[in-house]
Amino acid sequence: ASTRINENHRVDLPEVDTQEVPHNGRENATFITLARNEELEALLQSIDQVEKRFNKNHHYDWVFFNDNDFTEEFIQRVSERVSGEAKFGKIPDQYWGYPDFIDQKKAADTRERMKDVIYGSSESYRFMCRYESGFFWKHPLMDNYRYYWRVEPDIKFTCDIKDDPFRVLRETGKKYGFTLALYEIPFVVGGLWDATREFMEKYPEYIHPHNAIRFARLDGDDQSYNNCHFWSNFEVADLDFFRSEAYEAYFNHLDRSGGFFYDRWGDAPVHSLAVSLLMDRNDLHWFKDVGYYHPPFQNCPVDPVVRQELNCECPNIPDVDPGSWYNFAFESNSCIMDYYIALGRE
Ligand code: GDP
Ligand code: MN
After folding, report:
1. 8 assigned to some structural domain
2. Ligand 2 centroid vs 203 CA: distance in angstroms?
3. Which residues have a beta carbon within 5 Å of ligand 2, which is an ion?
4. Residue 55 lies in domain
């Protein structure tokens, strides 16, 4: 189940039409993970979850990225655990670090100003968010895939996944699937809404006429950002969207405005605003029956019959909801309601 792709020798993959329908029962799709060598054990745990609940029946590929070289141990142990083909790529320098238009002194001042908020003082976290916002699909290892499913270290899949999520997207023509939607910390997305509004004024041609922006925008006179976002640590989506001219224009506009460094914009609100503005709202999909846990929140099927059928083991989260089965979707700090409002299904 393993192939080592040598960074220095770009492998000539056959020309593949990314729109093509499946072969061997598999969609044209891959798992993707960005991780550090130190996260090996936490990542193996996540891989086992994915394999046990889904991939042992499908053997999809899995592409791993790192801003450093992966260690031999990492490559070996990960490859053993992935039932599909595991591929390892190093992120090119131009996608990880400061673009030349960023004032690094101002970036350092920002980290000092934001040191009391989670990751506020971190430089690498900002590189990570910018990479996940603007570049993850640009590595040659991703060239021939149409769909990806993002996985992080330390997550759990708590129910069997019977319907292949990639197939669900292709068959329904949808483009962006999520499990959790919640409010971002307002302090870290300062300026993101203003930059987005500027984009809307400058490039009205990219705004989808049947968009889902109500997901992210307050109603009424104010119309400011409500801080809702889809949690991007789980995403199953269509790479053609990220490869589109509209997305490229949106990312470049945000990047130039500097907020990845002069604030702490996450890739989750960036992806979320992009899909809410640039896509047809019917191309979004809530994978409501995918049991998924990324600390401290989880999604779990609401229907007890479904939970039984899918062998769910959704853990209690004692700090959040002592002693009871827990689903974040209908908690007050979930944005699922805003999603339904955006769809026009209050
Ligand atoms: P959180 O979910 O927002 O708390 O952030 P994480 O620490 O989980 O990071 C998000 C993803 O980026 C995870 O898959 C991490 O493994 C990965 N990641 C974060 N920082 C770095 C980094 O500096 N280098 C690499 N290679 N991966 C990183
Ligand atoms: Mn995480």
Report:
1. no
2. 33
3. 152, 233
4. 29-288+337-342
Phi-psi domain of 256 (left: phi exceeds 0; alpha: psi -120 through 50; beta: other): alpha
Encode pLDDT of 165-175 as tens digits.
999 999 999 99
Pocket test for ligand 1, best of 31, 32, 34, 229 (most atoms within 8 A of CB): 34
> Pocket residues for ligand 1 (CB within 6 Å)?
34-36, 39, 66-67, 124-125, 128, 152-153, 233
Going from the C-alpha of 11 to that of each of 18, 57, 85, 142, 192, the distances in angstroms are 18, 27, 15, 12, 38
Q: What is the pLDDT of residues 319-344, one digit of tens each?
A: 655 544 567 787 778 999 999 999 98
Find, among 186, 181, 345, 167, the residue nearest to 276 by Cα. Answer: 181
Number of domains in the chain: 1
| pTM assigned to the model | 0.92
Does residue 321 lie in a domain region? no
Q: Which ligand is closest to the CA of 68, given by its number?
A: 1
Predicted-assembly ipTM surpassing the 0.95 threshold: yes
